[in-house]
Amino acid sequence: MLLVVTYSRAARTTLRNVRRTHESAVVRELGRAALFEETELGAFLALRLRAKHGDDVQIERTQPFNEFAAVREAVRDAAEAYEDREAASTPYVKFAAGTDHPDPDSMRGTDL
Amino acid sequence: MRVIVDGRSYEGRVIDLTGTDVSAATAVESVGATDPPIHVDCPVPGDAHEHVRRLPPETFDRRAALAAAARALGHASPARSALDEARSELADLSAPSVDVDAARRRVAETGEKEERLRERVAELRGRLQARREIDADTTAVEAQLNEATSRLAEAETERIAAEQALERAEAVARDARDSRERRLELEDRVANREREIRRDLAAAVWDRFRAAIRSVPGTATVGAAPGTYDGDRVTAALAVARLAPLDAPVVVDGLDRIDGAEAAASILEAPVIYIG
Lengths: 112, 276
What we know:
The complex is a heterodimer of chains A (about 110) and B (about 280).
Chain A: E1 2-6, H1 9-21, E2 26-30, E3 33-36, H2 40-53, E4 57-61, H3 67-70, H4 73-83, H5 92-96, H6 104-108
Antiparallel strand pairs in A: 1-3, 1-4, 2-3
Chain B: E1 2-5, E2 8-11, E3 14-16, H1 24-30, E4 39-41, H2 47-52, E5 54-55, H3 62-72, H4 80-92, H5 100-133, H6 139-204, H7 206-215, E6 220-222, E7 229-231, H8 233-243, E8 250-253, H9 261-268, E9 272-275
Parallel strand pairs in B: 3-9, 5-8, 8-9
Antiparallel strand pairs in B: 1-2, 1-4, 6-7
């Protein structure tokens, strides 16, 4: 899908108008952003916004996130285990210390 | 005030142009203009005048008109300084422009070129193989393959460089979006403060507005709370014209509910140019 984010009041207004007139090409509305269908019409609408508002319009191409394909098991396990922790106040760093769970710094430095 | 039409001069606080061929649009356009179609000698119109310069008005924003009238009467809103602050911060904020377009285009072009050359290399390899199988001369094809292979290597390097340049440009664009984000916040804040100020100012003259509504022709009801108005825009505009301090004339154009120029001036408590 195409994620369109706006960064000015004028661009936001145009986005709102586009959503209203081309409901079928818009998959989701998220305030000043929207997900457009990945079709030529979706791209056309996104590009029209950019032609009108320049850098105030950000267009990203998105795809569904498959954690089983994109993320190593240790990270998935760590997320589950942390959400299962006993004390809600335990910060993750402390939770991960002395276990096999990855520490935040190593995760930060590793691209998916 | 003095108005000159076809060499004839009209003077006074009330000028009746019934019987001349001056249209309301011409009269409105002439009030306060530097190069007017007809000569109108009058004080410079203020912001409140803008809303009621022609009655009936073509469009009428009641809240904005009331705010302008309140301002003309000397009212101010406590939100004013917050608005000024947000406006000045907004003016100081510059969102850098980043040319990611060119970088994107280069990635697409170098990628396409690489793809074309890759196909060409595959095709030449196939041809070479076929010639070898029938023991034909391969010298020419080998030379072509060598050339295509080295051009492919170059294209690959170009594509990688283009991708790196795009990554850098996108990182800069991401940072620039932080200031765009901030600018949007400020734009919203300015708009909110402006609304708040309009609300405050309209509230400041609400009682005068209620009283004015009772003194102008028309059926409208005004509640005690600011903003509670039920009636047509013409009545509201007449009331605003009455309560606002107006130095420049209001052009009254064929308002059935007002009978003549003098009546208009006394209802509106303002200088009037009356068009029959």
